[in-house]
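sorry for the late reply, my laptop died twice this morning and i had to redo everyting from scratch. anyway the thing you sent over, i finally got around to it. pasting the sequence first so we're on the same page, its 163 residues, then the predicted structure underneath. double check i copied it right bc i was rushing
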Amino acid sequence: MWIRVLVLSLLLFAGAFGTHEVMHLLVIYAVGGSGSIIERPWEMGLVNFSLPSLHAQPARPLDLTAQTMVNALGPLLAAVPLGALLWWVREPVPAAALIANVVILVFYAAIEAGDLILEQVYHMDVAWLTWPEFNYGVPLVVIGLTVLAVKLFASDGSTRIPD
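ok and here's the structure:
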């Protein structure tokens, strides 16, 4: 069962990551801006290497309040459909994968809004918050812990989450 949780979690992560960028763009337009989704290189923090990355980019800089809303609401809005599915899904494999991805999207909302506030309000540059190693590493840890929990707690043979 754990391998199915791992595979489904990774597949959901890919879709949720793209959805979260689309939701950033939606919020950019909702706060009166305009923008697009771009592909750009994302420089690693620990080694001299970059990864291609999708990013919702406003056409013009937004004020702090609007940009904070964009940063927080993008991932939170992407979590809404997963949370709605979680409300109805009772099978342990999809439920575990959905929980992991909702946690990951809440993580993204916190670090994206938090990094902006730290930089703009408190003038603190916490560089590792924007490293790909951190932004992909924490979700991998969340998925790994979810898989471990399934291995440890689903060994009783249950196939449904109680209502």
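Residues 2-30 form the longest helix (29 residues).
thats about all i looked at so far, will dig more tmrw
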